[in-house]
Amino acid sequence: MGCSTKLLLALFFASSLLIQGILGEIVCEDLPTDVCAFTISSSGKRCLLENQVGNNGETEYQCRTSEVVVERMAEYMETDECVSACGVDRNSVGISSDSLLEPQFTAKLCSPACYQNCPNIVDLYFNLAAGEGVFLPDLCEAQRTNPHRSMLVILSSGAAEASVPAAPAPAPM
């Protein structure tokens, strides 16, 4: 390699590091805990907030990269407006489909302010609902037309069965 080629390669490498620093690659483990939840890393994986008990006995929070890949969405940090409009909490450790059983939460999630403007949160809950056999657009339609019916959509899907303990079998006579 000639001197000019080496110089050109070194210049290219230095500029790529500079561009990467300017663009700000999102690495979950580097994020502060207060913006971890509802963020998607540069690799397209969801960031999640985890807790553990530290050496001093106090709960410590850390941002980690999950194995969940979000199609067509990378380097995305949900806005505070969406967090508020959708009724989610950035400080939640773990996200569960149980929140879909709460009418107040479902109303916020299905509201136009959330459903039409917050694709990351909607995608997350779309997948959680699908895991329970519920199609989120149907749940939101039921929420808009008859909020009491939306609960029936979830209950009839079997999503709530795992949350409700089975009744004990009658004693043999």
From TrEMBL:
<dbReference type="InterPro" id="IPR009489">
    <property type="entry name" value="PAR1"/>
</dbReference>
<dbReference type="Pfam" id="PF06521">
    <property type="entry name" value="PAR1"/>
</dbReference>
<protein>
    <submittedName>
        <fullName>PAR1</fullName>
    </submittedName>
</protein>
<keyword id="KW-0732">Signal</keyword>
<feature type="signal peptide">
    <location>
        <begin position="1"/>
        <end position="24"/>
    </location>
</feature>
